[in-house]
């Protein structure tokens, strides 16, 4: 449950955004994030833009015929190809393939520590600033809808949560609900929590959120936990049993 105002805000100038997110950039840290054996490398782009003084995040709804995560709200992204030179290359290539966003139009602000996405993905998160007047060219084979929401929306405490226990792991899953173009949109799981995290990084107040039982995060301690290779492998094994 949020431990501060229900109407928080985020910084909105490029300089402040770059400074806030830059301190979490793994490219600046002496830490090696090696993909554990058996996991698949992937990258997503977290596209931010500034409109009328508000920071917004661009999101997609995945096509319903896809084999994995069909119909879910997601960041543009996908698997790393052999020709990709970096996790940034993967995120930018996928964003261009899915929504027609040119790599030249993305100002990469930071690369966040990788995360696990079921069932076996080792996902890097690239946060970038895109033009406020960007018009998506949607690849209907992969994406059914592109929309945006104010980033500060994910700092309000009007979310629902569900406690899930899988093996030795306990998860708190967050759900946000919005009406976009007359349609009810559900943003949950990985996408929801990383919208929260990026929002917290830019938050103007001392807002803190209990993201797991006993684990409270704020703009100062985000991404402070470096998970071991064994942690990711254990997660993969847990989901493989489902």
Q: Can you walk me through this structure?
A:
This protein is α+β, with helices and mostly antiparallel strands and 242 residues long. It has one domain: Nucleoside Triphosphate Pyrophosphohydrolase (Alpha-Beta Complex), CATH 3.90.79. The protein is 19% helix and 36% strand. The strands form 3 sheets. Strands 1, 2, 3, 4, 5, 6 and 7 form a 7-stranded mixed beta sheet that branches. The chain has a 3-stranded antiparallel beta sheet with strand order 8-9-10. The protein is globular, with a radius of gyration of 17 Å. The model is unreliable at 1-5 (pLDDT under 50).
Features of the shown structure:
alpha+beta, Nucleoside Triphosphate Pyrophosphohydrolase, three-stranded antiparallel β-sheet, 4 helices, 12 strands
* Secondary-structure element pattern, one letter each: HEEEEHEEEEEEHEEH
Structural class: alpha+beta
User: What is the CATH class designation?
Assistant: Alpha Beta
Q: Portion of residues in helices?
A: 10-25%
Mean pLDDT: 85
Rg for CA atoms: 17 Å
| CATH fold naming | Nucleoside Triphosphate Pyrophosphohydrolase
| Number of domain modules | 1
Distance between the termini: 29 Å
In what range is the share of β-strand residues?
Answer: 35-45%
CATH architecture: Alpha-Beta Complex
Major sheet characteristics: 7 strands, mixed
Number of strands: 12
Low-confidence stretches: 1-5
